[in-house]
Description:
Layout (H helix, E strand, L loop, with lengths): L2 H20 L30 E3 L5 E3 L9 E5 L6 H11 L2 H6 L3 E6 L3 H11 L4 E4 L4 H5 L3 E3 L2 H9 L4 H4 L6 E3 L2 E5 L5 E6 L9 H12 L1
Parallel strand pairs: 3-4, 4-5
Antiparallel strand pairs: 1-2, 3-8, 6-7, 8-9
Amino acid sequence: MTRITRIIATCAAATCALIAACSGIGSKSDADTAALDPDAPGLRVGDQVPPVTLVDENGSEILLSTLYADKPLVLVFYRGGWCPFCTRALKDWRDHVDEVTQLGANFVAVTPESPDNFAKTIDKNKLDYTVLGDPTLAAARAFHVHFTVDEATKEQYESYGIDVAANNSSGTWELPAPGTFIIDTDAIVRFADAHWDYKIRAAPEDVIAALKEIAE
């Protein structure tokens, strides 16, 4: 095996390891679901969105309500830039945010990453839309997508060099289940898609189709 071949094989193995590590998070057994239906995280269509405060890249506080005050809002929760499934979804949205804005709506991605870390996620993935931090995971709790990583998964992640606590503003091993919501100007959820299984995510095309129905 040549040196270049060994390097390629090593990189491929590292990528597979990272994906395998991500597989440990998102199952119902990992979720902090004491007061929730374990089969269906997230607010439901028709629910009222509670007050939520987020932060921008500079650490300045942003009221979520300002983003849906005069137009609908598409809100997407993601776990962190360390997760290849999250970054793939974030990049998918790059090609669809213009459609969201053309339909008269705002778009925001929300993460527990620290401002420094989600700024890196923005730059690395060339995201041209708003990303805000959920430093205490208050938004994740408000939207019923919050969970705490179990000890076995934590050890698995650490063995692959993934430190969720160091990546998060909270310094904890807490995460949101990936979820997508459309909120109208009355703070009512009009579309909801969230799953403990991190691999199941709303397709941008389906979200936009729902947004078109709301706009009509």
